[in-house]
Design the sequence.
């Protein structure tokens, strides 16, 4: 099985990290930031994870990304497969997606690490 590194990030903080696969969650998936009760929470809080994972299409995208990781891992070159997933601020959608993907990949037998590049940065005012 593959060694997988998942990096969640916010496009509004810095350029995307270098990765084999980059998933942009900004435009197609509901942003918890727009809900005042969720804005200052992060994906480490259950209400945010529930809001993100309850968005139509997210679990399908998690499954498709896991399939893509398996395809990269089955190639002739050994090494870590890096997945970067980003949203606007890096506190809600991206880290929730990263955690769901990590859970799925771990259950499939992959060795997974997760890093949330921008989770602890201040809420972006927009």
Sequence:
């Amino acid at each position: 099985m593959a060694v997988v590194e998942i990096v969640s990030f916010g496009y509004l903080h810095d350029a995307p990290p270098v990765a084999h696969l980059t998933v942009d969650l900004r435009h197609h998936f509901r942003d918890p930031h727009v809900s005042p009760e969720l804005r200052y929470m992060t994906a480490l809080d259950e209400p945010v994870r529930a809001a993100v994972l309850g968005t139509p299409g997210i679990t399908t995208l998690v499954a498709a990304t896991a399939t893509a990781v398996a395809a990269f891992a089955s190639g002739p070159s050994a090494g870590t497969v890096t997945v970067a997933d980003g949203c606007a601020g890096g506190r809600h959608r991206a880290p929730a997606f990263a955690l769901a993907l990590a859970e799925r990949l771990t259950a499939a037998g992959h060795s997974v690490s997760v890093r949330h590049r921008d989770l602890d940065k201040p809420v972006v005012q927009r």
Notes: Helices lie at 36-39, 46-53, 58-73, 93-107. The longest helix spans residues 58-73. The radius of gyration is 14 Å. The chain has one domain: 3-116.
